[in-house]
Each structure stands twice: as C-alpha cells, then as structure tokens.
Amino acid sequence: MARTSGSHSQITGPRLRAAALRLFARHGYAAVSMRQIAAEVGVQAGALYNYIPDKQGLLADLMRSHLEELLAAWDLEPKGTGPLDALEAFTRFHIRFHLERPDAVFIAYMELRNLDPRNFAEIEALRKRYETGLEDILRAGRAAGVFDLPDTKLATLAVIAMLTGVTTWYRPGGRLSAERVAALYWEMVRKAVGA
C-alpha cells in the first residue's frame, strides 16, 4: 500500500488497528467513524486509506486476525491423552486466551452482524473450525462413554458461550484470579458434559 511521506507504516498501521479495536469494542462498529479512528491515531481521516481499504475491511481484518491467532495457539496447546484431558485443556486454554483479549473477543462475537456477506462467510468459517475442534473432543468423549451428551453440537455451542462469557465480567485484581476462574469453569464444564 502507498503511504504518506514521512509516515511510519510499522507504527501507524498497528496503532490504527489498536485504536479501531478499542473504539469498536467501546462504542460498537456502527457508531464509530473513520474520523474518530483517525483522531485517536493522530492522523488525517484520508490518511487511514493508506493502511486499510475501508472500515468494513478493517473490521473483517480485526476479526480474522483474532481468529487466526486463536486457531494457531490452540493447535500448539498440549491436549493430554483422551477426551477428558482434551476438554480440560480446551476449557483452560479458551479462558486464558480470551481473558487476555477482551476487546477482540467482544468484536469477534458481537460484530458479526456488521460484516458483508463475503467477509461473514470467511469469518464464520474460521469460527466453525474452532468450534469443530471442541465438538470433535465431545464426540470422542461420548463415543468412549466418558461424556453423557444427547447432542454434541448443542453442547459445543453451550460450552463456548459459557466460556466466552467470562470476558464480560472478569476483571484483573478482582476476587478470583484468572487461574481460579479457569479451575472453577473446568468443574462446571466437566459437570455440564456429564463427565
């Protein structure tokens, strides 16, 4: 992409993304203008287009980056042996990863409605890959008689919703540490799947 003379693309690009992430999470995608993002970064509104194609592209890029990072991190996570170990690993990983990124999580789950159909299909496919990882664990556990589940798809959606909801109320320095929250949620997930 072309850039403005004297600008620093390695600095301005990431600052633009960070500002958009904060503003979208705080006010919602529809309520944030490109002028607000530019003001937050300290550049003219027209200069933003040296770094992004448009506001829709910026939203999709923020979601894509979050989900690709999530998938890559989950791929590297030790899963233990057997479905129960894998489910515990998933639970603890999901909470740890998401608590470190509350704004990205909010946008990835709450702003899907603002994506155009092409971007929606791409982002939804990435979300589906992550959900399928959990559903595979639940299917394996049900097949092995470790989990008592009537519907693994419904259980997948319920577990992810429960785990992701932590980002709406958790605050660092609060009554419970992140590790304690993960331990308590693991107990709830274990019981929810009939382990």
UniProtKB/TrEMBL annotation:
DNA-binding residues (ranges): 33-52
UniProt feature coiled coil, ranges: none
Occurrences of domain HTH tetR-type (ranges): 10-70
Alphabetical UniProt keywords: DNA-binding
SUPFAM superfamilies: Homeodomain-like, Tetracyclin repressor-like, C-terminal domain
Domain of life: Bacteria
Gene Ontology terms for molecular function: DNA-binding transcription factor activity; transcription cis-regulatory region binding
Pfam families, A to Z: TetR_C_24 (PF17932), TetR_N (PF00440)
Protein name: TetR family transcriptional regulator
